[in-house]
Design a protein that fits this description.
30% of the residues lie in helices and 22% in strands. The chain is α+β, with helices and mostly antiparallel strands. The chain folds into three domains: 269 residues, Spore Coat Polysaccharide Biosynthesis Protein SpsA, Chain A (Alpha-Beta Complex); 57 residues, Helicase, Ruva Protein, domain 3 (Orthogonal Bundle); 132 residues, Trefoil (Acidic Fibroblast Growth Factor, subunit A) (Trefoil). It is built from 15 helices and 25 strands. The radius of gyration is 30 Å and the shape is elongated. Strands 15, 19, 20, 21, 22, 23 and 24 form a seven-stranded antiparallel β-sheet that branches. Strands 13, 14, 16, 17, 18 and 25 form a six-stranded antiparallel β-sheet that branches. The chain binds uridine-diphosphate-N-acetylgalactosamine and manganese (II) ion. The site of uridine-diphosphate-N-acetylgalactosamine (UD2) has 23 residues, from strand 1, helix 7 and helix 11. Manganese (II) ion binds next to loops. Belongs to the glycosyltransferase 2 family. GalNAc-T subfamily. It is an enzyme of class 2 (transferase). Pathway: Protein modification; protein glycosylation.
Length: 582
């Protein structure tokens, strides 16, 4: 009996000890988990504990694709499910300073787990597609200059955790001489400990600029496919397979995931879907998916063609990417390479496609946390890079670029012989072919029009003028003294279907101004009868629905142009276009 008692007591002790041990384990585990999720704490602990880790604990097995385990999701943490982060007033105290330097809310980003859940922004149909297991493998290349810890690591975690193990060969981080301390050894150590084999860090020997940095990373990659991402992205559910699947069937397709928006203010993740276009000033723009593109799609979830791409998020068969010339290694820092590769791949027999089932978020920032001046072209990197692309690929259409950049005519753009050799070697189509076949929606300012150039009133030497206002929305049309055809702000076209227009906007009758009416430039709509104008033989320009005429009576520089009752004998209603083409 007493033996039994002792036995029971001992049992109790064992149970108690086990409970204590389990609680201890739980606390320890929890602490470790928290560590995974708070980027700030990771930085602090890493510094002080690296030596302890290697001394006290048995050496951990190096992480490989086989033994890597994603950290568990951070329930209830800020930003989960892609929600925006709320900041306390104290936290927002010096927000303006942060925004000025980083152009995104670094403090909000630091509150979000490095590995967070996102809303699935794909079309429902995407989820039921099954892919074969023998897809090509991918190397993901992330170039960075002065990017911050939390967005960079969030990019890496999202890529690793949302890519099938056997398809992700490696993540290559290319540090383009960042000035941020934590992105040095601390990053090396963190990646070694948490990603082992999966992440490689390359340090650029000199500041390369993002274009050369991408080539540099791409050349060391070993995957069948290279995927470029900016260093402030989050790859979403199932993002990789549809890309690899498309490249498997078409190796000459360059592919872009759809770029979802991550708010630069509160890190909220939002879906989006467009295709890429361009301005003749050679800036990229988003356009809505043309009807012909929608109609050609067999299914909503099929990849569809896009005339251009934004630049940041691009996948290509690695060998094909370099066969067609990679990026232009003489372009500096930022800009132009995205249009260059877009024109090139289309003109040289490949295609550029958007993959609706692949979604990747990107923090759009209104400025750059790094120096934008290159060595060449007096620091105007976008200007010089765009000159190179216009000179190599755009034939006579480069005239529209120089119309916007009159100042660049005759300036040095470096040696383009290697790039021209690519065009010859690949026997590429000309730019006219590209416009006709890939981007027929693009309005060509001086083709199939009745008149173009300055719209000039000789009596007052005033010309129609946008005054350089933003033309993305709607703006009031004005007048300014004529600039002899050198100002892009004074370039208008009168089309055969009676639009008086700019590149993307058309003149319509605007609001009342005394007993006259003003004129607005709004997005062109062929069906909008308000957008029809005629240039009469008697010299007037008449707005159709209203029957009123453009009149510069009593107007001076920078004032809005007005529509008044037509009177062809008034000198202030006489207009001449720079060039007539009928
Ligand atoms: C867009 C593209 C970007 C690139 C650029 C035009 C998207 C989402 N992003 O600009 O990828 O095509 O247009 O050139 O379409 N970086 C360097 N070295 C530098 C400068 C930048 O490594 O000298 C890195 C930078 O840290 C970032 C990436 O390049 O990871 C792109 O730069 P960005 O995010 O400032 O460019 P973004 O998104 O305005
Ligand atoms: Mn970016």
């Amino acid at each position: 009996h007493s033996y039994w008692l002792i036995y029971r007591r001992r049992n109790k002790v064992i149970v108690l000890l086990t409970v204590v041990f389990c609680i201890g384990l739980l606390i320890f585990h929890n602490k470790n988990n928290k560590r995974e999720h708070s980027p700030i704490r990771i930085i602090e602990e890493n510094e002080s504990s690296t030596s302890q880790v290697s001394n006290d604990k048995p050496k951990k097995q190096r992480i490989t694709a086989e033994n890597y385990q994603p950290p568990p999701p951070c329930d209830g943490c800020p930003g989960e499910m892609g929600r925006g982060v709320r900041m306390t007033p104290e936290e927002s105290n010096d927000l303006e300073v942060v925004m000025k330097q980083e152009f995104f809310n670094l403090k909000a980003s630091d509150k979000v787990s490095l590995w967070r859940t996102l809303p699935d922004t794909r079309d429902g149909q995407c989820k039921s597609i099954s892919y074969t297991s023998d897809l090509p493998t991918a190397s993901v290349i992330i170039v960075f200059k002065n990017e911050r810890w939390s967005p960079v690591l969030r990019t890496v975690y999202s890529v690793i955790n949302r890519s099938p193990r056997h398809l992700l060969k490696e993540v290559i981080l290319v540090d383009d001489q960042s000035d941020i301390e934590e992105m040095g050894k601390r990053l090396d150590d963190y990646c070694e400990e948490n990603f082992g084999d999966l992440v490689k860090i390359l340090r650029a020997p000199t500041r390369l600029g993002l274009i050369k940095a991408k080539n540099f990373g791409g050349r060391t990659a070993i995957g069948d496919v290279i995927v470029f991402l900016d260093a402030h992205c989050e790859a979403n559910q199932g993002w990789l397979e549809p890309i690899l699947d498309r490249i498997k069937t078409k190796r000459t397709a360059l592919l872009c995931p759809l770029i979802d928006m991550i708010s630069n203010y509160d890190l909220a993740y939002m879906g989006d879907a467009n295709v890429g276009g361009f301005w003749w000033s050679l800036h990229f723009n988003w356009i809505s998916i043309p009807k012909r593109t929608r109609d050609a799609q067999k299914s909503r979830v099929d990849p569809y063609p896009s005339p251009t791409m934004a630049g940041g998020l691009l996948a290509a068969d690695r060998k094909y990417f370099f066969e067609i010339g990679g990026y232009d290694d003489d372009m500096e820092v930022w800009g132009g390479e995205n249009l260059e590769i877009s024109f090139r791949v289309w003109m040289c027999g490949g295609s550029l496609e958007f993959v609706p089932c692949s979604r990747v978020g990107h923090i759009f920032r209104p400025g750059h946390p790094y120096n934008m001046t290159g060595v060449k072209g007096k620091g105007d990197v976008h200007g010089r890079n765009s000159m190179r692309l216009a000179e190599v690929w755009m034939d006579d259409y480069k005239r529209f670029y120089y119309m916007h950049r009159h100042d660049l005519i005759g300036k040095d753009f470096g040696d383009i012989s290697d790039r021209l050799a690519i065009r010859k070697r690949l026997n590429c189509h000309n730019f006219k072919w590209y416009l006709d076949n890939v981007y027929p929606e693009k309005f060509i300012l001086d083709e199939n029009v009745l008149g173009f150039g300055e719209v000039h009133n000789p009596a007052r030497s005033l010309c129609l003028d946008t005054l350089g206002k933003d033309e993305k929305g709607s703006l009031t049309l004005s007048v300014f003294s004529c600039q002899n055809g050198v100002s892009a702000n004074q370039y208008f076209s009168l089309t055969k279907n009676a639009q008086l227009r700019r590149e993307d906007t058309c003149a319509v009758i605007g609001g009342r101004s005394g007993d006259a009416r003003s004129v607005q430039l709004v997005h062109c709509e062929y069906s909008d009868k308000g957008q029809t104008w005629t240039h009469e033989k008697n010299g007037t320009i008449v707005n159709h629905p209203s029957g009123l005429c453009l009149d510069v009576e009593n107007l001076a520089n920078s004032q809005p142009i007005l529509l008044k009752t037509c009177n062809s004998s008034k000198a202030t209603q006489q207009w001449i276009f720079g060039t007539y083409s009928f």
